[in-house]
Write a structure and sequence with these properties.
The chain has helices spanning 3-25, 32-44, 46-68, 73-103. Helices cover 87% and strands 0% of the residues. Helix 2 packs antiparallel against helix 4. It folds into two domains: 1-30; 32-103, F1F0 ATP synthase subunit C (F1FO ATP Synthase, Up-down Bundle), CATH 1.20.20. It has four helices and no strands. The protein is flat. The longest helix is centred in the last third of the chain and has 31 residues, at 73-103. It is mainly α. One of its GO terms (cellular component) is proton-transporting ATP synthase complex.
């Protein structure tokens, strides 16, 4: 790997940690429960990542199908939009759960 690239990555990592770590040690008024709520919200938000990957795969499949069979583009597009809506519903549920964990 490029040494300059690795130096930049390491520098960014150290600078990020220097900003984040003091918040862990000098946080006042926060309890363990607040930290666990934030951790749970972050874990619930992983569902949004899965939905994004699912929509990308759906779009890729639709583009490949339209490329192979252009006369069926209308039907393929309708099916793709339906599948994207179903995949997005999982992301919306994960987002709602994470927001509920943070604010309730």
């Amino acid at each position: 790997m490029n040494t300059e690239f690795m130096t930049t990555v390491f520098t960014n990592y150290v600078l990020t940690l220097s900003v984040i770590l003091p918040n862990f040690f000098f946080a006042e008024g926060l309890t363990t429960g607040d930290g666990l709520k934030a951790l749970g919200a972050g874990m619930a938000a992983i569902g949004v990542l899965g939905a994004g990957i699912g929509q990308g795969i759906t779009g890729q499949g639709a583009c490949l199908a339209i490329g192979r069979n252009p006369e069926l583009a209308g039907q393929i597009t309708k099916t793709m939009i339906l599948a994207a809506g179903i995949a997005e519903s999982g992301a919306i549920y994960a987002l709602i759960i994470s927001l509920l964990l943070i604010f309730v």
